[in-house]
Design brief:
Length: about 220
């Protein structure tokens, strides 16, 4: 028998042609699966990728917000940082000014330098419906997750917002941090302005503002 020959019973009775056929089918299936995964992930990956020039220079990133449903959020990269754009619902906005809710927050009036002056308001944004924040926890740099529903296990004060999965820091729908959690500051608001009917430019202030993101507080 040749050194390259495979005994007919070496693989559970399969012959050499059977083994070759099985390996080919396995490889083909794996390849098709990888291609399918790539197509499925494309919309998510694309949403994280501004133009090559914008990424290289750390310059402004333009985002079309017309297809963000109320209550939904998208993530884009600005300065290589995940930046959240949340389309808030009327219910989410109404809770932001509730005195009983404000009493649970560490910096409810945004007194600390975590946003430009034009976002130093009760909704921490240029326009109430859309929140734009850099999604990096001010504790140790993890990325909080949007939790739009109330969760009884988080206590009666929780009405939804952002949860950091690493150490349990909580933020409301204006990205204001709760008391008694590890994170010391609200999530930072980057320079941004709206233009056209449905576009936001992250990394550029409205006319008349010279806010620098480098001036925000760091833990």
């Amino acid at each position: 028998m040749s050194d390259l020959a495979i005994p007919s019973d070496a693989y559970g009775g399969e012959t050499a042609p059977d083994i070759v056929r099985r390996k080919f089918l396995t490889a083909a299936t794996g390849t098709l699966g990888a291609v399918g995964l790539a197509f499925a992930a494309a919309p998510f990956i694309e949403s994280w990728m501004p133009s090559e020039r914008a990424r290289a220079l750390g310059g402004p990133v333009d985002v079309d917000i017309s297809k963000i449903d109320a209550g939904s959020m998208i993530i884009v990269l600005w300065r290589n940082q995940p930046t959240f754009i949340l389309h808030r619902t009327a219910a989410q906005l109404s809770a932001l000014e509730d005195p009983s809710h404000l009493s649970n927050l560490r910096d409810p009036n945004s007194a600390e330098m975590q946003q430009p002056d034009y976002a130093k308001n009760w909704h921490r944004s240029v326009t109430p419906e859309y929140l734009v924040v850099v999604g990096i926890c001010t504790h140790l740099g993890c990325s909080p997750k949007l939790d739009p529903a109330s969760d009884a296990s988080l206590g009666p004060s929780w009405r939804g917002g952002y949860l950091c999965p690493c150490h349990g820091s909580k933020y409301d729908f204006a990205a204001r941090v709760f008391k008694g959690v590890p994170a010391p500051y609200n999530l930072p608001v980057p320079p941004h302005r709206f233009f056209g009917a449905s576009m936001v430019r992250i990394g550029e202030n409205p006319p008349g503002s010279n806010f620098s993101f480098d001036s925000i507080l760091k833990a």
